[in-house]
Amino acid sequence: MNHSRRKFFQYAGAAAAGAIVLPNWACKSETTDAAATTETPATPAPAATGSIPKYGIQLWSVRDDMAKDAKATLKALAAAGYQQIESFEGDKGIYWGMTNTEFKAYMDELGMKLVSAHCDASKDFEKKAAEAAAIGVSHLITPYLGAQKKMDDWKKIAENFNKYGEMAKKAGIRYAYHNHAYSFVTLEGQVPQDYILANTDAGLVDFEMDIYWVVTGGKDPIEYLTKYPNRFTLCHVKDRSKTLPATEENASVDLGTGSIDFPKVLKVAKDNGMQYFIVEQERWDNSTPIKSAEVDAAYMGKLVFA
């Protein structure tokens, strides 16, 4: 994972300590698929255009393009089929050098909506929440905190999340936390992700499940979605390579070419309160961010739940 991402208030993820084992439940069964192809007739593809009519993209996926020409990049994403955008707070701010209302006006022109943004909630959060609420943003999200040294640190984090959630509620929006693998690493006999889920007010704090990082952390996204219904209201749809080693944290690939069974996982997500399905990709072997974004949009448009 490159160092530029850490420049944006250490936005990047941290892999779990030691070897990471990808669980079977989240992975496509190539053996089963092959047997079905050779022994039974193929099931006709559904005529529906997809089970997720509206899907978004996290602009981190096309960050270099955005830095060069934000408006042209957003126009290309709209042409690819994205109806929603999730921004992040970089050098040019959440709105990429535009005011909040200017950004919304351009989104309206493109037929897209800014639904969420990653930001540093520890700085000027009331102002950020007010600006986001003024243009109809649903969520402001803390994207990264890093592994903590002790559970007392996570206890303080949970307290802060509740405070941020109260500020967001007063502004008329929602606050959420986006996970990485580190929050699933047992610390002092507890799993930090479980602790913050149990010790934040569901009326104030939502969660954005990065499915890739749950899998990379060796956990089951379906288990978390069903155990904590309506807590995960946003998700990052990011696939993981079938061939890169489990210890490689930067292993995202074009949707549909990796190991995660999204038709299965996303059905459970939608059944348990997921509202926003946001594509993210951080590695582009033999591709470019824009080309992969187009492939990812095509996958989301055709996805049918298992």
Written account of the structure:
This protein has a single domain (48-286), classed as Divalent-metal-dependent TIM barrel enzymes (TIM Barrel), CATH 3.20.20. The protein has an eight-stranded parallel β-barrel, surrounded by four helices. The protein has a two-stranded antiparallel ribbon with strand order 8-9. The chain contains twelve helices and ten strands. Mean pLDDT is 89; it is low at 1-21 and 30-49. By secondary structure, the chain is of the alpha/beta class. Helix 6 (125-134) crosses helix 7.
* Structural class determined from secondary elements: alpha/beta
**Gap from first CA to last CA:** 32 Å
What gyration radius follows from the Cα positions, in whole Å?
Answer: 19 Å
Task: Name the overall outline.
Answer: globular
